[in-house]
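INSTRUCTION: Work out how this chain folds

Fields: amino acid sequence; protein backbone structure tokens

Chain under study, with its fold:
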Amino acid sequence: MVSLGNKKQEFKIVNSGGDITAEVKQKQLPTGMVLGDDVLTLEIEPSIDQALTVALVLVYGLMNRRL
């Protein structure tokens, strides 16, 4: 399941138990400055297939015009 965030580019992928398995959000510098709309960070849980998750995020983002 995909959970949408507050901003256009932010969303999360959760498993059937409701645990977050991957999260896409705007990249932020340690100083707090948020980079451009097209600069994103993807955090994936270690036990999840990373290639499949990246593919799902890319396809979902393009289909829904969120990337």
Observations:
- Residues 2-63 form one domain.
- The mean pLDDT is 84.
